[in-house]
Amino acid sequence: MTTTPSLPLNLGVLAHVDAGKTSLTERLLFEYGALGALGSVDAGNTTTDSGELERERGITIRSAVAPLTVGGRRVNLVDTPGHPDFIAEVERALGVLDGAVLVVSAVEGVQPQTRVLMKSLRRLRLPTLILVNKIDRPGAREDGLLDDIRRGLAPYVIPLATTSAAGTPAARSLPLPLSSAGHHSPAELLAAHDDLLLSRLVDGPAPTEEEVRAALVRHTAAGLVHPLCFGSALTGTGIRHLGEAIATLLPSPDADEDAPARGTVFAVERGANGEKTAYVRLFGGRLRARERVVLHRDEPDGSTAPVTGRLTRLDVVGDEGDLRAGGIGAFRGVPGVRVGDRLGAPGPGRPVFRFAPPGLEAVVRPAGPGRGAALHSALSALAEEDPFVRTRITADGELSVLLHGAVQREVLAERLRREFGLAVEFAPVTPVYRERPVATGEAVRELGPGPEEFWATVGLRVDPAPYGSGVRWARETEWGTLPRAFHRAIEETALGALGQGLYGWEVTDCVVTLTRTGYAAPLSTAADFRHLTPLVLLRALDRAGTRVYAPCRAVEAEVPRDALGAVTGRLAALGADIGETRESGDRWTVTAEVPVGDVRELTAALPGLTGGEGALWSRPGRDRPVRGLPPRRARTDGDPLNPESYLRFLAGR
């Protein structure tokens, strides 16, 4: 496959924490002339870890983009997080990449997060090279590590180099010819996916090195095989071998400049003046400065909302002029932009980012008095950069933030302190429950005078809807029966009231239908409808009844054969619903639905249960009904199922 220099290769660098991916990015930029001086993670002066917090912690928190030219080919390096708490950032970045480099430490070898990353890469069939880094460190190894990689990451790994003096400062990477023979030779491994190559190996004549290379390019592009290099980001040995593989083995992106503009916003940054800069990967068409754009946002409830603006500035990464298909650009001028917003249709083979909210939350409070509004504003600003930062007001009137884990919580606290001058305290992390109606409930309240009455008539019906469908608003009344302002007041208030159900949790997967309306001109106001609608909605919910659901994660644990009993026993003790177990060689894979609050305990216990050989993948799973008495979030001055009592509490808190 030939490369097209005009189309940049958008390349991701991924790794387990501390495997050296940020150092590798820095070395590539330096080696190919994009940097005049080499930065260091330890010194805190690397290019892609531009945030002060990232430099201090030595971990990458947000994706960063850096352009360079490798072997005459333009490359945009996308440096992604490696910590498990930021796996959402990694998954988001994969959707805008054309290829990836997975970094494995020659000392620590295949680590749990390495397996998680490779599983995602292989599922997407994303062309991936492997770099075995740190060959100069004591304890570095080659042969045994290659066996571990083939067993634990991908069976079809093709070394392009070998090492000398591994484990010493004199370690070097030495290129291997593709025509090398023997067990696990390149031709033999490629023949597993190539009938023509297989016939040449069996019947002769033996394939030439050019034929083997052509097959390697084809099957690397298909994500079936993974070329592997050895090197050291610290000393620079082997980095040129990796650069050659990037330039010659990874495929060019498919892009049509004549098609309508189509792309994905994958990162958002906020400047000192509050203005947003959004990074977009363009898959088709062109973008120009001063152009008016309409972005599409896929909401958690399944709806799509437009986000509009005019591009006041457009900077093309590694280029000038218009942003063309295949490239990455940074634009300003769309104040409402958020990560995951789409320009045009997603296109074939490209994921749509529907961000399921995290299943954990923690109440956050300012350390000093009178800073509640400032904290809410700061968290709202951070949520615009990261769709996984989501806040809500609890029934106790406190501010809660949804989280993935402890490191994310610590990073969030530090960003609030450094960027907004806010010291905060987090309460213990708890699961985020949800309520779903179990039947149909309907309520009506007529207009009338008096202290407990409103100059408004509202009738609402709540019906259960399919799992995962979110909330839908419907009408059985005509628009003309009310002024439009009153219609908007009813809809906005009803949907907002679903944030606090009968037990205080968000209500989802339902259809709310407006069944009756009435008003008395000129006495009725929008405020009458805003005050009355929650009372009617909660009465309808009371009559429908709700069931509380606990969030779960769908987990897949890969464990040694002798650890299967211990792992399934721990899963059962955690209340997990164990699914399929299957054997593969000397390992077992176990699938289960685990309550989200117990995933951290399972993750912490797995190394001890498996002798450090277990790996765990997880993704959002289905909620399941709470067993026993459902937890109540709402605190009321009376019966929590009494809507009037509940609303009086909410109004007076």
How would you describe this structure to a colleague?
It is a single chain. The protein is α+β, with helices and mostly antiparallel strands and 653 residues long. The protein has 16 helices and 35 strands. Strands 2-3-1-4-5-9-6 form a seven-stranded mixed beta sheet, with helices on both faces. A hairpin with a 5-residue loop joins strand 20 and strand 21. Helix 12 packs across helix 13. Mean pLDDT is 83; it is low at 1-5, 49-63, 634-643 and 648-653.
Biggest β-sheet: strands ordered side by side in the sheet: 2-3-1-4-5-9-6
Mean pLDDT: 83
Query: Which overall shape is indicated by the principal axes computed on the Cα atoms?
Result: globular
List segments where confidence is low: pLDDT < 50 over at least 5 consecutive residues. 1-5, 49-63, 634-643, 648-653
Q: In this structure, how is the largest beta sheet organized?
A: 7 strands, mixed
Give the % helix.
Answer: 25-40%
Number of strands: 35
- Secondary-structure-based class equals alpha+beta
Task: Write a concise synopsis of the structure shown.
The chain has 16 helices and 35 strands. It has 653 residues and is of the alpha+beta class. The strands form 8 sheets. It has a 7-stranded mixed β-sheet with strand order 2-3-1-4-5-9-6, with helices on both faces. It has a 7-stranded antiparallel β-sheet with strand order 14-13-18-10-11-17-15. Strands 19, 20, 21, 22 and 23 form a 5-stranded antiparallel β-sheet that branches.
